[in-house]
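Subject: Sanity check before I submit

Could someone independently write out the structure tokens for this chain? I want to compare against mine line by line before I put it in a report. The sequence has 201 residues.
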Amino acid sequence: MSTGTQNPDMARRHRRVAMACAVFAVGMVGLAYASVPLYRLFCQVTGFAGTPQRVDHASSALGDRIITVRYDANVGPGLSWDFVPEKISQDVRVGENTLAFYKVTNRSTKTTVGSATFNVTPDQAGGFFNKMECFCFTEQRLEPGESLDMPVSFFIDPAIVKDKDGSWIRNITLSYTFYPVDHPKARADAPAAGATQGIVR
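---
Independent answer below. Compare away.
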């Protein structure tokens, strides 16, 4: 058996394999960081997993069907907030521009910032539930003891009536969960005048 110097061709082959492995590892790390925003964008565009659509226009058509929208509110661990809907449910005509309110109160003794995740159930309704304005689009900052009435403006696309996956839907639950924000955005990033804002109480 030869114990001499490694064959140059074999050494080059090993270097190529090592470089390919390094590129693959870097690519996997990059994919891991990108997967969350890409998944979120995919859900927002398609309504996948019950993600409501974000639109910049009001509805221009009304349908005949009435759908009952139930409002759900939750607070994740680490956030001392009370968070409740103004109404438990509301009957909404498809295509009707609707305004609903949630109320949040900071029960802690310090200023805290929260961000709300959201979805609708059943999942098939996500592609037809269109939000024009929502407190969930921005972080919410509350001083100790401060309360806000926060609006969400939405409509249900009348196309849901003729869709094979949505035609059976008569009830939709709009659900939010607030989580603490450890590194809030600078105050300069707050929405400009005219954007959706909470109403201080």
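---
OP: Matches mine. For the report I'm noting this point. Residues 1-46 form one domain.
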